[in-house]
Amino acid sequence: MTSSEIREAFLAFFEKNGHQRVDSSPLVPGNDPTLLFTNAGMVQFKECFLGTEKRSYVRATSSQRCVRAGGKHNDLENVGYTARHHTFFEMLGNFSFGDYFKHEAIRFAWEFLTETLKLPKEKLWVTVHRDDKESEDIWFNEIGIDQNRFSRLGDKDNFWSMGDTGPCGPCSEIFYDHGEDVAGGPPGTPEEDGDRYIEIWNLVFMQFNRSKNGEMKPLPKPSVDTGMGLERIAAVMQHVHNNYQIDLFANLIDFIAKTLNVSDHSNQSLRVIADHIRSCSFMIVDGVLPGNEERSYVLRRIIRRAIRHGNKLGATGSFFHKLVSALVQEMGEAYPELKAKQAFIEKTLSIEEEQFARTLNNGMKILQSYIEQMNGTVIDGEMVFKLKDTYGFPDDLTADIAREKGLTIDKNKFDELLANQQASGREQGGFKTDYNDTVEVESETEFLGYERLNCEAKVLGILVEGG
Ligand code: ATP
Ligand code: MG
Ligand code: MG
Ligand code: MG
């Protein structure tokens, strides 16, 4: 089954079971300033769970574009290292707003996996929250699952929340066993960090609203929120172990490999770049522009990281913006807004690339010579700070380079220096610090970049949303 076929089968299954099909909402949540990016299917329905918004339906299904690159759910560091994490992915979900609860949620999920997708039951593993006897009974008595493929876990694994505040509750998760050839143990064991047992579907039983002071108030009615990663279930259905081998990535990775002249398509940097072109393009589609604050800074960090990985593969000139066409080819049909904004995405990335290229080489040289001479395995916080401040190397980029060499960074020292800088910026100016402002040459480049970006947006006749 192709990814598109799986997406359609999922939505059709829940439609048949009385759910309203709802479009994906944008990556920038319209209803929630506490959240950096839409990180799950439930985000656009938050008010429905809280009971403060009523819709004409009480059951919904969607395929939601998500980004997990900041805040409570941040998988940026996992990309390229695990088989299952992306910064951008699609989450298939079904939702009940005070309508059905655990029985139906569990039955729907099991039926979809074992009957519609025809997955063998003996490849599935189920977890529940330790205190959730009700779900446990349903799994054993109504579904009849194998006791040997079942775990009871605590809050860390089986209590889901969107962020520090908002709707939350205990959950039950379904894992797929990719077989003995892959390293890793069942959920809840010390070996689970491997990629053998991959979590595919999370069924959250929404019962509480967590307030700022940590208080848990019951929701007006118990509800259901589920999420299944499209790329993960596609890997299962396409008999590959690694998400980056599925159809959605195959053409994209081919194209990147050709562009950068790389022959090994399982190269880690190729995968990182493939992931990053997806998240960066969709963030820009949804109105984020590279910059130095919040969402914009997350985007900038990801772009710079992608460029560095390209550089590592031997790219000498700009390449990242050239990959947008391949992404549009792959996903433009499912997301017409991506196709419509192709030229604008390319321009935005290309300006950012040009700007960073000037400083990348210098920064890399400085970091490399520091690493050659350093003692121990921890890169000094002052060095990390200098790279960020003077060369536009975000600290996570330095950490990424360090990790490849078996080193770490002194994050505490770095955070301290950053906090000092921010505090003195506040004293001086009274407005938020633009870190690049402190560097004369760089600040000029930044400025020109933005002037040009705005001009070009006008030339292209494109409205820069939120920018
Ligand atoms: P993991 O433990 O593997 O990091 P999670 O528990 O953080 O996953 P949930 O928050 O439960 O994930 O999200 C619901 C589903 O979304 C997961 O079961 C998985 O299928 C998918 N998913 C979560 N994070 C990612 C990601 N970074 N990339 C791709 N799919 C993801
Ligand atoms: Mg996770
Ligand atoms: Mg998990
Ligand atoms: Mg989970």
Automatic annotation (TrEMBL):
Localization in the cell: Cytoplasm
Sequence ranges assigned to domain Alanyl-transfer RNA synthetases family profile in this UniProt record: 1-467
Keywords: Aminoacyl-tRNA synthetase, ATP-binding, Cytoplasm, Ligase, Metal-binding, Nucleotide-binding, Protein biosynthesis, RNA-binding, tRNA-binding, Zinc
Molecular function via GO: alanine-tRNA ligase activity; aminoacyl-tRNA deacylase activity; ATP binding; tRNA binding; zinc ion binding
Superkingdom of the organism of origin: Bacteria
Ranges annotated as spanning the membrane: none
Any one biological process term the GO annotation gives: negative regulation of DNA-templated transcription
Required co-factors: Zn(2+)
EC number: 6.1.1.7
Entry's Gene Ontology cellular component terms: cytosol
Catalytic activity reported: tRNA(Ala) + L-alanine + ATP = L-alanyl-tRNA(Ala) + AMP + diphosphate
Co-factor: note: Binds 1 zinc ion per subunit.
Entry comment, domain topic: Consists of three domains; the N-terminal catalytic domain, the editing domain and the C-terminal C-Ala domain. The editing domain removes incorrectly charged amino acids, while the C-Ala domain, along with tRNA(Ala), serves as a bridge to cooperatively bring together the editing and aminoacylation centers thus stimulating deacylation of misacylated tRNAs.
Record family assignment: Belongs to the class-II aminoacyl-tRNA synthetase family.
Function summary: Catalyzes the attachment of alanine to tRNA(Ala) in a two-step reaction: alanine is first activated by ATP to form Ala-AMP and then transferred to the acceptor end of tRNA(Ala). Also edits incorrectly charged Ser-tRNA(Ala) and Gly-tRNA(Ala) via its editing domain.
Protein name, as recorded: Alanine--tRNA ligase
Native species: Aliikangiella coralliicola
